[in-house]
Amino acid sequence: MSNILDSKLVSFSYFCLLLIILLADCNMNVTYINLSGHVELEKYRYVYFSIMVIAYILILSSNFTVVCLVVIHKSLHEPMYIFIAALLINSILFSSSIYPKLLIDFLSEKQIVSYEACLIQAFTFYTLSCSEYLLLAAMAFDRFVSISRPLQYHMIMRKRTVSVFLVLAWFVPVCHIVVPFIGNANSKLCSFTLRGIFCNNSVHHLFCVASRALLTYGLVALFNIAVFPMVFILFTYTVILIVAYRSCGDVRKKAAQTCLPHLLVLINYSSLFAYDIIIVRLESDISKAVRFVMTMCIIMCSPLFNPVIYGLKMKEIYKHLRRLFSQTRGK
């Protein structure tokens, strides 16, 4: 299992390096973008910095703890727990693409970023965001097979199947999202001020003329790697609930214990992702303070929420967590 996750990280690093090289070749002159989304930074910079440092430490420690438990304990070497570990690694990478730069900006006099680095950050942000949807879709399929086809479960959810799902969850978003970002690398900019604290969809408002072809492609990509997986997840869990309702009490209990955490994570993440896609893209006239708070929720809630939900609601993981903390307390 660890080999699968390691290969996933190496492959993603390779694609990021390739993207950096491509963007660097596109434009040797450095263009800087001003990040104007901060609220009263001069007054509260140390408060923001302290909150984000604590949040980042909690994200790294909590996600790494659950991932290590899954890797160490053979009883957790099941498809469902492997997908959970992959999802938490995704959260770590997601946070690490945003937090270091954000912490530097909180302590800096000027909050600027090069245009190339901005595109890379936005690319990483949306790649990892869509990977989360695909991983949740893989979990939904795993639960569907487990509850609806229990006798064929081990035949269907083999190691090779799990490996294919992990690879697809990683590379499909990369292949979809890399096209518009490379296409926009040489776009002419008419604005150098981004209404945000990091690079996201707002980068499209910097262009003098937005490419209709790339915008259309972006909508198709959004449907393929976000909307379609979400519809599949909802359909799958609807079928699971119907099957559980018609079955005995043990099946209902199993469905509730294993499906509820996935649904909570999906609802939480979809709400925040919808804000970023719809509100930011439409440049809604919401106040700067509300925009700042919502952006902070996007980058804090899901990475902190996921390990707590899976650590407390998944019975096997919770059992190992209790044992770990009991041993630590005893020492």
UniProtKB/TrEMBL annotation:
Keyword Transmembrane set for record: yes
Transmembrane segments: 12-35, 47-72, 79-99, 119-141, 162-182, 221-247, 259-280, 292-312
Keywords annotated in UniProt: Cell membrane, Disulfide bond, G-protein coupled receptor, Glycoprotein, Membrane, Olfaction, Receptor, Sensory transduction, Transducer, Transmembrane, Transmembrane helix
GO cellular component: plasma membrane
Record membrane topology: Multi-pass membrane protein
Entry GO MF terms: G protein-coupled receptor activity; odorant binding; olfactory receptor activity
InterPro entries, A to Z: GPCR1_Superfamily_Member, GPCR_Rhodpsn, GPCR_Rhodpsn_7TM, Olfact_rcpt
Domain G-protein coupled receptors family 1 profile: residue ranges: 62-310
PROSITE patterns tied to this protein: G_PROTEIN_RECEP_F1_1, G_PROTEIN_RECEP_F1_2
Top-level lineage group: Eukaryota
Pfam families named in the record: 7tm_4
Compartments it resides in: Cell membrane
UniProt keyword Kinase present: no
UniProt family annotation: Belongs to the G-protein coupled receptor 1 family.
Protein name per its UniProtKB record: Olfactory receptor
Top-level taxonomy: Eukaryota, Metazoa, Chordata, Craniata, Vertebrata
